[in-house]
Amino acid sequence: MEALNAYRQRVEEAKCQSSESMMAALALIGRDNARTPMQWDASKYAGFTAADAAAEPWISVNPNHVEINAAEEFDDPDSVYTFYKKLIAMRHNSATISTGEWHLLAADSDQVYAFTRTNGDDTILVVVNLTDRSAGTACGRGGAAFRRRVRAAEYCSAPMMLCIVLNRSLVASSLAGRES
To answer: What does the alpha-carbon distance between residue 97 and residue 50 come to, in Å, rounded to a whole number?
Structure first.
């Protein structure tokens, strides 16, 4: 709306700028060229506006809305939506995740973000590879060092997150369902 108002004020009302000049300026500084409506489903306007609406949305819907939309994510076990559901469930079901003491590991790494959360005898290690390259990281706890390979993500172009529960028999590998 900001761009539409600026165009109306400068080109149509004040007549201090040509249409071509204003459009060029908006292309450089405007936010709208990077926006599309939320893609809720595969319908005509992606569920952002009713498919039978008298007017179409003021900003175009991305043509990929037929394949990429929220409705497609709900039942896909490998979707970002499902991944976040797993993360939220883990947070609600684990005092260690939600209230455990936080300790940063590999603080000098530009490639890996790693930390532990500890609550009593339970320790959770989270390692996130921030790049598209494989990364090795050594993390130690109580003198018992271990080394894990942290692979670049194939999951929705996002970094791979590993969550390992230590001091229990349960070892939960990657939340995306991949082996660590």
So the answer is: 41
